[in-house]
Description:
Chain A is of the alpha+beta class and 182 residues long.
Amino acid sequence: MTEPRSPLHGVLGEFETPEELLTAAKKARAAGYKHIEAYTPFPIEGLAQAIGFRWTAVPLITLVGGIGGGLTGFGLQYWCSAITYPLNIGGRSLNSWPAFIPVTFELTVLGASIFALVGMLALNKLPQPYHPVFNVERFAHASTDRFFLCIEARDPKFNLAEAARFLQDVHAQHVIEVKDEE
Amino acid sequence: MSVTQTPVNSPEIRRLDPVLEPGHTYASVTDKIAAVVLTRPLGIGWLAGFTITFSLVMMLFVAVSWLFAKGVGIWGINIPIGWGFAIVNFVWWIGIGHAGTLISAILFLLNQKWRTSINRFAEAMTLFAVACAGLFPLIHTGRPWMAYYMFPYPSTMGIWPQFRSPLIWDVFAVSTYGTVSLIFWYIGLLPDLATLRDRAKLRYQQVIYGILSLGWRNSARHWHRYQSAYLLLAGLATPLVLSVHTVVSFDFAVAIVPGWHTTIFPPYFVAGAIYSGFAMVLTIAIPLRKAYGLEDFITMRHLDNMAKVMLATGLIVAYGYFIEFFMAFYSGNKFDVFLATQRLHGPYSHFYYALLLCNILTPQLLWIEKVRRNVAALFVLSLVINTGMWLERFVIVVISLTRDFMPSAWGRYSATFWDYATLVGTLGLFAMLLFLFVRGLPAIAISEMRELVAHESHTKKDQE
């Protein structure tokens, strides 16, 4: 966050098919680029791996939410029914745990679902109204029918001319500079 | 792709209709679905439909306001029939909601490609149905401004909810279901909202969809986390949807009232919920595809599959009716036996016969392929099944409560004008929300349709 902003975000290559993009992404990794990002109108199998992204914490966060929700659910019922407001009904056990299962289950699912949504958004750093790629006019096609590969300027190997030539070599239809100006 | 060629979706089963008519590209599916929201002018049909349903919502407001002013005495409920229409409608609406989650979560986990073009509006239907359902127990409490007593909160009175009561389970089940359905729906909408933002020409559309899409930019890393979250939510929603109607059935099954106290209730309620839910999806899908020319996306294959699901769940429901009778006589419990004969010969027997006609006999027509491929017939059948499922809940609630253990506790029930006004009002609310939805949000998941286009073109290439 504190690093000085460079006016150049990177260089964007536009492709017509997911296969071309996938090949280009693999070649970019092989060429030594580390900070690359792909933009596609729908998820493409293997693309995240091709740009060097393997592990996501979303399942772990969801698990934590689920366990937290379940413990909260059971704890709440136990505390209410056995500790703070015990009702003696025909001498039955105060910790009547089978009766607490439905609410425990519901809160497990609720906790996990909320954590899945919030975790996904937080890891994606959304909401984020501004991003340099939005400055590119053709980028609107990323949500319709075009596939983009961005080689970012923060990559240690980045050189504008070289990156642009690389994208042309892998048959990008358009090669566009992405400026970061607010 | 040529249009004349036999479309091939599942190569092993050639005679099936496609899930997507051939000839579509990423851009054409996007254009077609987004245009309904962004550019299409308001037609006379939409305006007329909205006006009618809006006036029904006004009627609902009047009915509920009158209820708040006078109390639940304006309804037909009495002692011993304390539940009446409010609970009949609650169970009916919540059941309708189930198909949405089934389509979006269970069919997703089962990798059923045909769910793609119907999941979005089915999920919307779920949300609206749950909203209508939630209204009934709330206004049925008599003093709805104290409904928050049902939630555990540290009050100065020092009292806490009775967590051993199915009614409290219901509060948690339904509110969790509503929340999770909303989360699932919103996650699915996120990329489509970004698509609308990118395609919007008018300033207000850009601003609204821009805010709602949270700056989604279709990045591969984002998609990766998105898919992970979506899959997990589908996995979470699957047991949830089965649990919700199970908990609703506990409201009955945990009580000792004859006709309610049976173990068949949870599975039979869940099957009935899916049955009525699919009927409602068809009731919505058939006019929707016609009105907005979406026949390429919601094809005969979808209608046929939904009809088959209705047939299967309808048979499970029929089995449930049979087992209810069988167990009543097999148990030898005289109260259960008496209740079973009351269903056939009692004062409400015409409801029971109508129920058998709507839910068991008529849907057997779905065995015939010609019926499943006849859009008009399917539409009529879906309405018949919806009616039948409403009658089922009426039979369960009213017949049992009017024929309790002691003849001195027997009674009669008939609904009043305000009961009907509230029921019709929620139908209006449901339809009005759907009218707003089809014009405000993409009724079909656009990004998933693009994925389907990619999938179809791969299958086609493999064939050649």
